[in-house]
């Protein structure tokens, strides 16, 4: 995935990497193909609910008023003034980009062109008739160029953005121009989208009087009964990219545009609106020359095929003549027209024909052309199939053409080829667990999307023996997860599911879709949190830790072996060998170096997956790993600190003990007063969790007393009393042994739990590591200060979580927003454990490098975004602003809360919604510059103050605006 252009060649093929459509009886491309291959006729009278459409036969969509305005951050007021054609092509564009696997972030700032196709706006006429033709109406309906511009702004696209109008050939002309722009290097990617609606207006009357419409509303291409064309609604979009770039970026190529041509009849036709054999033939021949394809090799042509008597005769005669030259006898070219299924979709007809052709080429099947003969009459080179027909067999890739001819005399023909074969990837190692991310802009869409993933993963599950399932049935599960991670925009509401197989993912997805939350079925809509790596001391070790990751994760294995070499240089024994032994780790000489190595390797996996720490915190010996990960200590220096110090502890420290107790530091100190010479508080984990350290016998006595009072106590698995006077004998030996240590500043800040502040890495010398061993661990206050500073995700970097409860307690007591996750768990699948934690990071808004989570993955199609439609239609402007407010002026605005209510009410009136979140900016709610200036005028007039535009269009929230208005009025009564 990406937009890295290769060298441009004027005749190179253009890949179609994404498409979408919304057509009568077909809300998406899959259903469209079913409609085509089943020979369905979707022309009928409009539904009675369509009061804005006269009862005329045509190809109608189920609904043209529905739109997911909230998805695009468009206010209800503005959405109601957008031409339904603009709304439809906006959604079609997003769906086509989903199909192409291009997330919005990958397109932002790119040289992507947008070409839109819409004809006249009868919706603009309706707005004008109902006095709703304000600036939003003009921009959203009166000016068709804004449709392309809106998409460019939505996605931050920097290539050319334009609306075209060549009557019925508009959208295919847009494809031709987009391909030219790609071949010339003017653009690196192109989006072509179009839409057509049949609303009440003058078009029907004019076309009827011109006798070009079929009385029964059906196009009968090539039939003796042809008597005019039938009209149809719809939207379609394609995403185009130079083939070389698409292949280099790992895109799915659905088909290729080999060449195209556009021209005009000039004066070769009888009149402007009549077809010309000379004009059509010239265009079709030039298209084949540009494509480097012999017309005789073309297997299928999607004709303009309107069903008008003169138009059909001219088109079929030209195709017979051009395609027949050099064609082997008995191998006629199949010709068809989608207009016989859904009507003539006018501005978008060429795109619809192109989408049909791509689907037919992919499936190597030519759908039936309805209402016409099967033999093409007496023409030798062309045939109109009346049933779905297998693609003609011949050597070479499938070749097809698409024609579109406009009332303006503009003719366009595009030559389409089958996608080049792609080498199947080598069999990859099957992971022991899969992480599938799903996201949406709102909870209802997330549930719907989870259900779509579940259905498409379950359909055709190879374990059921049903081979006819969904699109994802035959895809490698790892590629599905890779595509969901790397090829989709990650929205605010997120879901992450982890399972060892397809069935496990399906179960969890369905559980979420059905409203049953599973452990990893979490959602959130948070801003990006700070990431804090937390490294605990002893106690997390267990037999078998790290083994699975050594076998499954190359990054973990490589980093662990690097640490192993450093430990071996210090001690002569191997960390890797020790991990594979079944004997438990008990000696401090082994426990601490092995834990340090595993912690450093675990951190490497998190960072490889894109989870970069903003801060590291170490607990006791865990600070050595924290310092190594921060960059303050090299791996060799980290190994020197942990190995030399643990050896000195074993040699010079007498026996001791440590016990974790559920009491705060102050209470613990009171309990220890009788044993002040033998015991101390060694660790403060939180306000009510400490660790007592010192003499074994004294500690046993204190522990028994606390337990009798109902205090929870747990022995720490250590052989000595750390952070207590018992470690003092080590001091001279350790200072001498680490005298040559040369720490650096590091690249990641480290919050010292010795000094309880962020320290420069250069301070982590021999004296510091002695203090780290002797002084109490101020973990609780360190973590609490971090938790209180804003959203945070604490990642415990250890083989088994020992600090997660203390972290959660600190978050709760800090009153902040945060969560704590583990890396791996004792006796649980290790990769699955880490992926579960990664899923939480993603759900909570943290960054994830999905391409690294599954290296070598390939793109496969995954479910498109399910838009949540609401009905938007023109309404008379609401008068909830200046005049009404003056008449019912508030008796007084005194408090900030008063001003917040005032701001919410005014914004709600302007946007025509009651859903106003004061913590969002005005622009994110849809208050554009036009409405912002209206709000400014209202407020200045009402409150008699000056409101700078920056307050309305800046980065501040509406709550901030209310506070500013409160301050500017000087707390005076307003009314």
Automatic annotation (TrEMBL):
Keywords: Phosphopantetheine, Phosphoprotein, Transferase
Domain Ketosynthase family 3 (KS3): from-to ranges: 11-418
Pfam families the UniProt entry points to: Acyl_transf_1 (PF00698), CurL-like_PKS_C (PF22621), ketoacyl-synt (PF00109), Ketoacyl-synt_C (PF02801), PP-binding (PF00550)
Domain of life: Bacteria
SMART domains, sorted: PKS_AT, PKS_KS, PKS_PP
Residue span(s) of domain Carrier: 894-969
InterPro entries referenced in this protein's UniProt entry, alphabetically: Ac_transferase_dom_sf, ACP-like_sf, Acyl_transferase_dom, Acyl_Trfase/lysoPLipase, Ketoacyl_synth_C, Ketoacyl_synth_N, Malonyl_transacylase_ACP-bd, PKS_Beta-ketoAc_synthase_dom
PANTHER family the UniProt entry points to: FATTY ACID SYNTHASE, SI:DKEY-61P9.11
Protein name: Type I polyketide synthase
Organism: Saccharothrix lopnurensis
């Amino acid at each position: 995935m990406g937009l890295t252009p290769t060298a441009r060649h004027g005749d190179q093929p253009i890949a179609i990497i994404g498409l979408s459509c919304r057509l009568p009886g077909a809300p998406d491309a899959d259903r469209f193909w079913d409609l085509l291959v089943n020979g369905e006729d979707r022309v009928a009278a409009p539904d009675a609910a369509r009061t804005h459409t006269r009862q005329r036969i045509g190809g109608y969509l189920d609904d043209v008023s529905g739109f997911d305005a909230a998805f695009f951050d468009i206010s209800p007021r503005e959405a109601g003034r957008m031409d339904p054609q603009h709304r439809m092509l906006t959604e079609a564009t997003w769906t086509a980009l989903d199909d192409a696997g291009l997330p919005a972030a990958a397109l932002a700032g790119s040289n992507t062109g947008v070409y839109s196709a819409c004809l006249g706006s009868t919706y603009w006429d309706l707005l004008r008739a109902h006095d709703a033709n304000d600036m939003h109406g003009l921009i959203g309906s009166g000016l068709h160029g804004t449709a392309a511009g809106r998409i460019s702004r939505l996605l931050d696209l920097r290539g050319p953005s334009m609306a075209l109008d060549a009557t019925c050939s508009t959208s295919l002309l847009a494809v031709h121009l987009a391909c030219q722009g790609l071949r010339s290097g003017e653009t690196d990617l192109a989006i072509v989208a179009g839409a057509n609606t049949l609303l009440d207006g003058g078009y029907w009357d004019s076309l009827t009087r011109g006798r070009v419409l079929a009385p029964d509303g059906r196009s009968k291409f090539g039939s003796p009964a042809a008597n005019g064309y039938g009209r149809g609604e719809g939207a379609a979009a394609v995403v185009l990219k130079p083939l070389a770039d698409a292949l280099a970026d790992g895109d799915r190529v659905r088909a290729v545009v080999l060449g195209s041509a556009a021209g005009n009849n000039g004066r070769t036709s009888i009149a402007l609106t009549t077809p010309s054999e000379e004009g059509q033939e010239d265009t079709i021949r030039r298209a084949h020359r540009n494509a480097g394809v012999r017309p005789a090799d073309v297997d299928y042509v999607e004709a303009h095929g309107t069903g008008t008597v003169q138009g059909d005769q001219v088109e079929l005669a030209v195709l017979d003549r051009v395609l027949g030259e050099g064609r082997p006898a008995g191998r006629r070219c199949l010709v068809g027209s989608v207009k016989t299924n859904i009507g003539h979709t006018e501005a978008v007809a060429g795109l619809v024909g192109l989408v049909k052709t791509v689907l037919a080429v992919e499936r190597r099947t030519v759908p039936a052309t309805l209402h016409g003969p099967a033999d093409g009459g007496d023409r030798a080179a062309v045939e109109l199939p009346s049933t779905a027909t297998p693609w003609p067999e011949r050597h070479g890739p499938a070749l097809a053409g698409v024609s579109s001819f406009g009332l303006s005399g503009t003719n366009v023909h595009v030559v389409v080829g089958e996608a080049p074969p792609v080498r199947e990837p080598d069999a990859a190692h099957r992971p022991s667990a899969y992480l599938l991310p799903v996201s949406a802009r709102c909870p209802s869409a997330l549930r719907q999307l989870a259900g779509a993933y579940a259905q498409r993963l379950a359909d055709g599950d190879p374990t059921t023996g049903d081979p006819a399932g969904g699109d994802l049935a035959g895809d490698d599960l790892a590629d599905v997860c890779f595509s969901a991670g790397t090829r989709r925009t990650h929205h605010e509401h997120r879901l992450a599911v982890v399972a060892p197989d397809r069935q496990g993912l399906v179960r969890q997805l369905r559980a979420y879709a059905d409203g049953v939350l599973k452990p990893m079925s979490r959602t959130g809509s948070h801003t990006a949190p700070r990431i804090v790596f937390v490294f605990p001391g002893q106690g997390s070790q267990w037999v078998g830790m790290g083994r699975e990751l050594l076998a499954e994760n190359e990054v973990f294995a490589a980093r662990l072996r690097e640490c192993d070499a450093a430990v071996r240089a210090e001690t002569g024994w191997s960390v890797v060998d020790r991990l594979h032994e079944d004997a438990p780790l008990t000696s401090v000489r082994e426990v601490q170096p092995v834990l340090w190595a595993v912690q450093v390797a675990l951190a490497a996996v998190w960072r490889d997956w894109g989870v970069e720490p903003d801060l590291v915190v170490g607990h006791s010996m865990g600070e050595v790993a924290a310092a190594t990960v921060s960059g303050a200590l090299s791996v060799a220096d980290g190994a020197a600190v942990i190995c030399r110090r643990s050896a000195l502890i074993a040699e010079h420290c007498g026996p001791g003990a440590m016990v974790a107790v559920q009491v705060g530091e102050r209470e613990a100190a009171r309990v220890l007063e009788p044993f002040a010479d033998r015991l101390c508080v060694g660790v403060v984990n939180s306000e009510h969790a400490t660790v007592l350290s010192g003499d074994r016998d004294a500690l046993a006595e204190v522990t028994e007393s606390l337990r009798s009072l109902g205090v929870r106590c747990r022995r720490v698995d250590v052989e000595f009393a750390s952070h207590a006077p018992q470690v003092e004998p080590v001091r001279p030996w350790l200072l001498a042994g680490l005298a040559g240590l040369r720490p650096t500043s590091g690249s990641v800040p480290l919050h010292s739990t010795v000094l309880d502040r962020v320290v420069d890495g250069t301070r982590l010398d021999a004296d510091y590591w002695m203090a780290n061993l002797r002084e109490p661990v101020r973990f609780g206050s360190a973590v609490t200060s971090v938790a209180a500073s804003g959203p945070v995700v604490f990642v415990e970097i250890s083989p088994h979580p020992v600090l997660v409860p203390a972290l959660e307690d600190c978050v709760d007591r800090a009153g902040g927003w945060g969560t704590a996750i583990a890396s791996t768990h004792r006796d649980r699948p290790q990769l699955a454990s880490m992926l579960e934690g990664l899923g939480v990071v993603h759900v909570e808004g943290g960054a994830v490098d999905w391409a690294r989570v599954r290296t070598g993955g390939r793109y496969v199609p995954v479910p498109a975004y399910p838009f949540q439609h609401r009905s938007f239609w023109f309404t008379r402007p609401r008068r909830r602003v200046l005049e009404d407010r003056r008449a019912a002026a508030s008796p007084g605005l005194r408090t900030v809360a008063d001003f917040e209510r005032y701001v919410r009410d005014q914004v709600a009136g302007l946007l025509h919604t009651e859903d106003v979140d004061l913590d969002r900016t005005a622009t994110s709610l849809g208050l554009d510059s036009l409405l912002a200036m209206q709000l400014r005028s209202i407020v200045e007039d009402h409150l008699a103050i000056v409101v700078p535009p920056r307050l309305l269009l800046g980065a501040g929230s509406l709550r901030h605006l209310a506070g500013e208005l409160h301050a500017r009025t000087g707390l005076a009564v307003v009314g």
